[in-house]
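Here is the promised in-class demo. Please do not try to memorize the tokens; focus on the logic of going from shape to residues.
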């Protein structure tokens, strides 16, 4: 990484995110004013959709990146999805990992929770993340060692003086974020049924469901994994648990949350979840559990509270299967 000018790349990524966000907003406004329509095509299911806007924004981002950094690799959702392989392709080379429109279903229905997500990865670590949700006027940005920011002026998390500790009985008292995902197959004990069981466990009163009830304050589903992570970075969501999304959905958001002091590990509980080492999530693993930044409290550091919360979530959720080659 020593031979990379991260400051320059970071500035480039922020401007690229702004320009791509302008494209998304222009396309939405054209629909609002009746001069364009959102025509979508199904990919792998009726909720896995692509629009011409997805394609156009990715093409512009890819051209801008490769004309500026010809020796960098590029992985974008739409170009990757045209292939048949699900191989994980990110290696140690500098790589841009881009979702031109995360929350396509939201965009089609003009639900404002959609964004462009631009991540930059070195040695398989997300070191730059830019997320622009133009309809919400929210631009998130982060670079390794420089913190995470909202609209370039507000450092994240929002509450900083001090950063609030996590609840002593977490997940009780937490805002829990999750997504239904695109795999809607009604398979017995499949991923969808396991997700639903996990969601209900987290929502149920303490002591309920065989002592797996979590009594979270609320369950939120934005329809955008990228924004779920960004809202964890803000401190607005305490926990995000998800399986089935891809590296372009989480790359920028993981950088944001890491720089905001959060933690991202695997969604799947290990057999020894009470004592297992809590390792960083595998970027291409398709399984993610995120915890917001946490302040210290009497007798417990913020990191200890984050790990306690991870184990409390692991105790209540089911194992998911989103295996793929190369991971």
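The designed amino acids, position by position:
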């Amino acid at each position: 990484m020593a031979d990379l000018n991260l400051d320059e790349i970071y500035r480039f990524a922020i401007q690229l995110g702004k320009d791509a966000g302008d494209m998304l907003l222009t396309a939405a406004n054209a629909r609002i004013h009746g001069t364009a329509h959102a025509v979508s095509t199904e990919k792998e299911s009726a909720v896995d959709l692509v629009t011409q806007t997805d394609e156009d924004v990715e093409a512009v981002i890819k051209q801008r990146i490769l004309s500026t950094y010809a020796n960098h690799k590029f992985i974008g959702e739409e170009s990757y999805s045209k292939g048949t392989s699900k191989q994980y392709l990110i290696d140690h080379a500098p790589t841009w990992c881009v979702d031109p429109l995360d929350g396509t279903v939201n965009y089609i229905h003009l639900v404002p929770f959609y964004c462009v997500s631009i991540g930059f990865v070195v040695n398989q670590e997300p070191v730059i993340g830019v997320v622009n949700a133009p309809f919400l006027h929210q631009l998130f940005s982060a670079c390794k060692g420089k913190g995470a920011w909202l609209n370039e002026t507000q450092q994240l998390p929002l509450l900083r003086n001090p950063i609030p500790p996590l609840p002593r009985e977490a997940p009780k008292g937490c805002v829990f974020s999750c997504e239904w995902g695109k795999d809607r197959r009604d398979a017995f004990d499949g991923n969808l049924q396991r997700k639903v069981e996990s969601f209900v466990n987290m929502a149920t009163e303490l002591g309920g469901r065989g002592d797996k009830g979590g009594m979270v304050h609320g369950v939120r589903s934005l329809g955008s994994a990228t924004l779920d992570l960004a809202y964890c970075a803000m401190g607005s969501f305490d926990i995000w648990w998800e399986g089935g999304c891809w590296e372009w959905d989480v790359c920028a958001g993981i950088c944001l949350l890491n720089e905001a002091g959060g933690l991202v590990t695997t969604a799947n509980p290990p057999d020894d979840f009470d004592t297992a080492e809590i390792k960083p999530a595998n970027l291409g693993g398709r399984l993610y559990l995120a915890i917001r930044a946490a302040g210290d409290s009497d007798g417990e550091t913020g990191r200890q509270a984050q790990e306690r919360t991870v184990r409390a979530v692991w105790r209540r959720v089911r194992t998911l299967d989103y295996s793929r080659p190369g991971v």
